[in-house]
Amino acid sequence: MPTDGFSRGRRAPQRLLSRSSLFRRNAVLGYAVGLATFIVALAARVILDHAIPQFPFITFIPAVIISAFLAGSRAGWFCGALSFVATWYWFVHPTDSFATGFNETVGLSLFVFIIVIDIALIAVAARAVEELTQKEGQLNIIVEEQRKTHIALEEALKAKELLLHEVNHRVKNSLHLVNSFLFLEALKIDDSEAQSAVMAARSKVDLIARVHQLLYLSGNHNHVDMKTAIEEIVTDLIGSAGRDDVSVEQSFSGDLMMSIGQASPLVLVVNEIITNALKYGLSSNQPKLTVSAASSGEEVVLVISDNGPGIAPATPDTKSGLGRQIMDGLVHQMRGEIAIQSDGSGTTITLTIPTKPLSSDIQGVS
Amino acid sequence: MKILIVEDEFMVAMTLKVLLQRQGHEVVGIADDVVSSVKEAERTRPDIAFVDINLANGTSGLDAAAELQKSGVICIFLTGTPPNGPRPDLALGCLPKPFSDKSLAATVKIAEAMIEGLPLPPPPFGLELYCA
Question: Interface pTM (ipTM) of the complex?
Answer without folding.
Answer: 0.83
